[in-house]
Specification:
The structure is a homodimer. Chain A has about 200 residues and is mostly helical. Chain A contains eight helices and no strands. Chain A has a domain at about 55-190: Tetracycline Repressor, domain 2, CATH 1.10.357.10. The interface between A and B is large, with 44 and 44 residues. Chain A binds a DNA duplex (30 and 30 nucleotides) through loops.
Chain lengths: ~200, ~200
DNA sequence: AATTTTGCCTAACACATGTTAGGTTATGTC
DNA sequence: GACATAACCTAACATGTGTTAGGCAAAATT
């Protein structure tokens, strides 16, 4: 290839794989599909990777580690629970909007992992959810958040931030910041109209 | 079969198919898998159905019509926007919790539909989302809901109510009503602690 | 009792699947 | 210029795929 910007062929392979896995699903994407999209033969893929599942593993665990960093980072720097949650949401949204294909695979296709890796992956997922849950508990102790079922609330929050992936268009009008802002407001403020007497209202 | 309660073999087939499609995904579930689960040979399935995709179509469109009914029903009976939204959420939750397998297929596996049916399905989905959106607009006009981006809000609401399917356990402690109640409160009230001066607060 | 219908079977098809083996060519390094 | 490595190729494998054809037995209908 005379292309200068071929960072790495393997990275390119993973990128294209993520795109196809998002579009058609992991199981419905064949190695020949993937190879054709790269302009090579199916057998040639095995110069770069060991197996089809290795591709899925790489994509899933790469993103899992990115999400793990969000929690670690947020807990290191910020102190106020609302600030923590807002920042976590912002970073989460950023990861999803900047890695739309990989995110879709991370969110939907991980079921296709097989057993040693599957459990490992689910543990990482649970750990992330627990991280969010701790922030919520802190917020309730600080009397910043309403007293709610924290398990229930954390799952609900994750659902809203993850659903972005379903409709977000990188070429659309909304910026990452704008999305994060609106989502945070929605999660924190709810929908019902209220007078401006929130205890922690900040203009 | 001497079993009395075999409602219909086809219904049973669809039920088992939905279960497997949820567990392993549509593409990863073979007709032989499905047949084995029913205790018959793969070829025998074709006595009941025309093709694998027909199964997927049936499941997806059955549920789509259930969701359509929710909007129609709600718009016929209720007048207050908040009441409408609460009822829509309750009915939506009910459909998901009472049809866990089919819901999972409806939410995740519809991508595997092929072209005439795919577009048809997406239209139904969009119509449903639009139904929710109209309720939100009404609510804003009635000054019951905060002024928000209704497109954004409707997608966010759908994300939260759909995510139930990811963690809901029919044998768990939470009832449909309890889930619907909590979700409605969350969506309408948000997370931030506030004084009890909501314009439309009802104890 | 005769006949249709229902539900399943075996056998087989044409094709798609992930993957391996072994060879060829371009690219970069000493 | 020799050599190593990276990137790709063709050919083929074993197995899995959705589906069809044709037949058999029990149950339901007449």
């Amino acid at each position: 290839m005379s292309e200068l910007l071929t960072t790495n062929r393997k990275e390119q392979l993973l990128e294209v794989a993520a795109k196809l896995f998002k579009q058609r699903g992991y199981a419905a994407t064949s190695m020949r599909d993937l190879a054709a999209e790269l302009g090579i033969e199916a057998a040639s893929l095995y110069h770069h990777i060991k197996s089809k599942e290795e591709i899925l593993e790489t994509i899933c665990f790469d993103l899992a580690s990115k999400f793990s960093n969000v929690i670690a980072e947020v807990n290191d720097i910020y102190f106020n629970a609302e600030e923590k949650l807002r920042t976590a949401i912002k970073n989460h949204v950023q990861i999803i909007t900047q890695n739309t294909n990989q995110s879709a695979v991370f969110l939907h296709e991980w079921r296709n992992l097989s057993e040693p890796k599957l459990s490992e992956f689910m543990k990482l997922r649970d750990a992330y959810e627990k991280g969010i849950r701790v922030i919520l508990k802190d917020g309730m102790n600080e009397d910043v958040f309403d007293d709610v079922d924290d398990k229930f609330a954390s799952l609900t929050i994750l659902s809203t931030v993850n659903w972005i992936n379903e409709w977000y268009n990188p070429n659309g009008k909304m910026s990452t910041e704008e999305i994060a802002q609106k989502l945070s407001d929605f999660i924190l403020g709810g929908l019902r109209k209220k007078m401006v007497t929130d205890i922690n209202y900040k203009p």
